[in-house]
Amino acid sequence: MEMRSPLARVRGLGSAKEGVEHWWVQRITSIALVPLVIWFIFSVPTLIGTDHAAFRIWISHHGNLVLMVLLVSTLFHHAQLGMQVVIEDYVHGKGTKVASILLVKLIAILCAVSSLIALLHVAFST
Amino acid sequence: MATQTNNRPLSPHLQIYRPQITSVLSILHRMTGVALAVGLLLLTYWLSAAAYGPEAFSRAQDFLGSWVGLLLLFTWTYCLFYHLCNGIRHLFWDAGWGLELQAIRASGIVVVAASLALTAALWISAFALEGTM
Known about the structure:
The complex is a heterodimer of chains A (about 130) and B (about 130).
Chain A: H1 6-13, H2 21-43, H3 52-60, H4 62-90, H5 94-124
Helix pairs in contact in A: 2-4, 3-5, 4-5
Chain B: H1 2-6, H2 21-52, H3 54-65, H4 67-94, H5 101-130
Helix pairs in contact in B: 2-3, 2-4, 3-4, 4-5
């Protein structure tokens, strides 16, 4: 018999120990992504067909670099949280489910780190 | 016990359930989300190419400027605008606003119209600016 109150469960005291955190982080990242994505869309026209030198000048601007780093990290975090929910809903085998979630998370980390290091690399190269 | 089981609510059988604006836009939110996540691989390629130097970056730019690249970017921007607009709709629902059936239908139409208009505006301005920059 369940002895704990619903409040205790959502606080993260359940067997999964995470409560509403996944749902909540998905909302927080989505709120953060609204202005970041709008900023990025307005920046895109300046980047179409540009060469490496022009891209380097663009990313060397402090504001552009900061916003790109924030955009890329938030984007990958939000994407892997969303992919996890999709996999949990449609992949039914327990082993395949865990394996595909892990694979998605590893790919997300790899791509996020590669993108972030690339941004810093280009911005700080002379 | 058997009658109790029979009275329990069932999920709609998707194969015979008439698609409605609510259900169609809901699954579209998921599908565009997955497409955007896959598209992040392209973003990673583009940014990483910049770190590899001018040759790699210009190869990436050429690919994105080819018809395959443009088609991918066009699809990706539509998915982005749809997911962005519908995501804002979801945030309003989370705050408890606009949950009446009529409001849900109206906001759904607004989301579809806005995502189409924004995609068109972005690509028209991109092609208009291409010659000037």
